[in-house]
Write a structure and sequence with these properties.
It contains 24 helices and 18 strands. By secondary structure, the chain is an alpha/beta fold. Strand 10 (415-421), helix 15 (425-437) and strand 11 form a beta-alpha-beta unit. Helix 1 (4-25) packs antiparallel against helix 9, helix 2 (31-46) crosses helix 8 (221-230) and helix 5 runs parallel beside helix 6. Homodimer.
Length: 659
């Protein structure tokens, strides 16, 4: 154990590196790293299990910086402890293009960064997912392989965001005793003192949520050590409120909101280094302190070596369990296609039932809609406080936390599948965005996808959500038309490990269009599902091309049949289960689907028109909904919005006459 004076000198290394890096970048957040430096130092030297030479060691403790603006706290730790391929040049590149040290931690910027944080509270919920994952590994492989902790550093802002309380509530309910949250309780936010907007008793709230709590002086090394010791062996998740001074060590800015999000300035940094008795030169740390920091991990060396021996004794199957999940999709060929009208949520549910047989690393869950989403079945085993052997999480009505917890599960090597009504994706969007940013394989089951919801009315009928989700880079939104397309979309979602997928599914029954599976066409994102015309040949130019998704594909086929049989027109119908896949095809294929020779392009989708005109052109016709829905039976709602075969046919014929 180091002396108090030694701890202080070591934590001052974090302070000056954070101040210098922010000053060098001419932007950043120095206050939080300066305030939490003492806590970080105690954690690094006495508690955190890590090996800088093997940043991805499976049994390492996970360190999640939910208060991502304080990223220099993390980066200074990486540098000082000697993390592989992380140097002083990375600190000097703080906030520079393509650096390992972006303004907020990013999962793929450097291998030791556990998750992308920045939007406050996301890291907190990610940590809950990681804690559940650790319990799962522990159940399957035992304590010798999985007994790591999850440490999460949060700030006042994280605890103002609702997602933190959603996640904390579930963590307390599940008794996640491997989760330790360190609260930087500096009572400062961007606008000033937190008393401007906050007056609750944080410890009282977390106690009520089933957590163990402790309040300490975040600059008293004895209290820091004692609280972390107490947190090691409990039966509850732990919150340690560390009362700190933002920008501690600064002469003029300590305790002030002015130190939160701006460089300290040259004069203030000079005063800081004088007070801390550190060298004046930027990024300079005394050699004896650097050498001591490099020893911080040595207490973990024997543990690391012992773990490697235990790992080597595992069976190949057990070793494989530690790797990210990969599932052979051949089982999809054996799922019986529906022959009668069936909602795509039901078709999806039959896939999920078979998928659960393929791997115990599939973790399903729902935001209190498990049977409505058809995501829970006879093979589902609920994860509880006393038993983590299951494969299903009851998230409760906590959509936002559910999505972020799923990110934590995916980052830990599991395949999370979570469901709710599509209209509630608005509650989940920040976490969905991050799963796309981190390229994590997360599967979202969004049912009740249109005005087909019917009597529940405008509040429950998604109108703009398809366009909103399609706008998220790297998220693939899949809206299948029938049972066969649903299975085909599942094949895409299971096979692609580089991004999240969102299956958007009907509540109402839809007719079966395809009698067999067709992997290739669906994987192209858009394909001709029907081309009908009198004496049609390969050289024919179409009068009308109708594009549609989901439940509206059948409507497009009905309109095409009428236009062909009654009006003798040449009509092609294109199903577009996935915009993103389609627009990643080569230009030749895109041109073969969006034919310039077609007289009129039409799109049908029970949602808003945004995004569709890149397919149908400015002169095309869109049949959809550009206002909020209505409370009425589904068929009445479709009639109200003129989404019927008769209305579509008449509008197309009128437009053709005007051309």
């Amino acid at each position: 154990m180091l002396t108090k004076d030694s701890y202080l000198k070591l934590s001052n290394c974090i302070r000056v590196l954070a101040a210098d890096a922010v000053e060098h970048a001419k932007s950043g957040h120095p206050g939080m790293p300066l305030g939490m430096a003492d806590v970080m130092t105690s954690l690094a030297f006495d508690f955190l299990r890590f090996n800088p030479n093997d940043p991805l060691w499976f049994n390492r403790d996970r360190l999640v910086l939910s208060a991502g603006h304080g990223s220099m706290l993390l980066y200074a730790f990486y540098y000082l402890t000697g993390y592989t391929n992380f140097t002083i040049f990375d600190l000097k590149n703080f906030r520079k293009l393509h650096s390992k040290t972006p303004g907020h931690p990013e999962y793929d910027a450097y291998q030791a960064i556990e998750t992308t944080t920045g939007p406050l509270g996301q890291g907190f919920a990610n940590a809950v997912g990681m804690a559940i994952a650790a319990k799962k590994y522990q159940h399957v492989l035992g304590n010798k392989i999985s007994n790591y902790k999850i440490y999460c550093i949060v700030g006042d802002g994280c605890l103002m965001e609702g997602i933190s309380y959603e996640a904390a509530s579930l963590a307390g309910h599940l008794g996640l005793d491997n989760l330790i949250v360190l609260f930087d309780d500096n009572q400062i936010s961007i606008d000033g003192k937190t008393s401007l907007a906050v007056s609750e008793d944080h410890l009282g709230v977390f106690t009520a949520l089933g957590w163990g709590v402790n309040a300490i002086d975040g600059h008293d090394f004895t209290q820091i050590s004692s609280s972390l010791n107490q947190a090691q062996n409990t039966n509850k998740p732990q919150l340690i409120a560390c009362r700190t001074l933002i920008a501690k060590g600064c002469t003029n800015k300590a305790g002030s909101e002015t130190a939160h999000g701006s460089p300290l300035g040259g004069t203030e940094i000079k005063l800081l280094k004088t007070q801390l008795q550190m060298p004046d030169a930027a990024f300079e740390i005394p050699e004896e302190l650097r050498a001591t920091w490099k020893t911080a991990w040595q207490r973990n060396k024997s543990n690391y070596e012992t773990w490697q021996n235990h790992y080597a004794q595992l069976s190949p199957t057990a070793q494989e369990y530690l790797a990210p999940v990969k599932i052979n999709t051949d089982f999809l060929n054996n799922i019986q296609l529906a022959t009668q009208p069936e909602s795509t949520r039901v078709s999806s549910g039959r896939v999920i039932q078979e998928l659960l047989k393929m791997s115990t690393k599939v973790i399903c869950g729902s935001a209190d809609l498990s049977f409505s989403n058809n995501i829970k079945n006879s093979l589902s085993v609920v994860i509880t406080k006393d038993d983590f052997s299951g494969n299903f999480i009851h998230y409760g009505v906590r959509e936002h936390a559910m999505a972020a917890i799923m990110n934590g599960l995916a980052l830990s090597g599991f395949l999370p599948i979570g469901g709710t009504f599509f209209v509630f994706v608005d509650y989940m969007k920040p976490a969905v965005r991050l799963s796309a940013m981190m390229r994590q394989q997360v599967i979202y089951i969004m049912t009740h996808d249109s005005i087909g919801v019917g009597e529940d009315g405008a509040t429950h009928q998604p109108i703009e959500q398809l366009a909103g989700m399609r706008a998220i880079p790297n998220l693939q939104v899949l809206r299948p038309a029938d049972c066969a397309e649903t299975i085909e979309c599942w094949q895409i979602a299971i096979s692609d490990h580089t991004r999240p997928h969102m299956l958007v599914l009907t509540r109402q029954n839809v007719p079966q269009i395809k009698a067999s599976l067709d992997w290739r066409n669906t994987s192209l994102g858009a394909y001709v599902i029907s081309a009908i015309a009198p004496q049609l040949d390969v050289n024919s130019n179409f009068d009308v091309c109708i594009f549609a998704t989901g439940s509206e594909v059948q409507l497009a086929l009905n309109a095409a049949e009428t236009l062909t049989v009654v009006d003798n027109l040449k009509v092609q119908v294109i199903s577009i289960p996935c915009f993103e896949l389609f627009f990643r095809q080569d230009q030749q294929y895109i041109n073969s689907i969006i034919l310039k020779s077609t007289k009129l392009c039409v799109a049908i989708e029970a949602g808003c028109a945004f995004g569709w005109h890149q397919i149908i052109g400015i002169n095309g016709i869109f049949f959809g909904i550009n206002q909020f829905g209505v409370s009425a039976p589904a068929e009445v709602a479709y009639e109200h919005f003129t989404l019927t075969t008769e209305n579509i046919v008449n509008a197309i014929k009128t437009k053709l006459c005007d051309l």
